[in-house]
Design brief:
Layout (H helix, E strand, L loop, with lengths): L7 E3 L2 E3 L3 E2 L9 E2 L4 H6 L3 H15 L8 H10 L18
Antiparallel strand pairs: 1-2, 3-4
């Protein structure tokens, strides 16, 4: 089981506690309060354990990681299981 921690410091960097995204349906959206680089490069055993947990759950399909701002459109649009949507914000157009 992954050990999570509250506010504090890891490798000299201030960290935030894990929090729930209040606007995400069913309370299933979370914010770690740590950037990907800090998690990946840390020598702190708690972050190494968290990193392995994230990798395992991402590889198994149990977890999808993305920026909170990317989760807003599907929540607002209320896309159904049979529906689809496209995120064109990051698309580079070639003419």
């Amino acid at each position: 089981m992954c050990v999570l921690f509250a506010h504090g410091q890891v490798d000299g960097k201030a960290i935030e506690a894990v929090s729930t995204l209040p606007w995400f349906p069913e309370g299933r959206g979370f914010s770690l309060g740590l950037d990907r680089s800090t998690i990946r490069k840390s020598t702190d055993p708690r972050l190494r354990e968290l990193h392995q947990w994230l990798i395992g759950h991402t590889d198994s399909g149990m977890l999808t990681r993305q920026e909170a701002v990317s989760m807003i459109p599907p929540c607002v649009l209320q896309v159904s299981e049979r529906g689809s949507s496209s995120d064109l914000r990051e698309t580079q157009w070639t003419y």
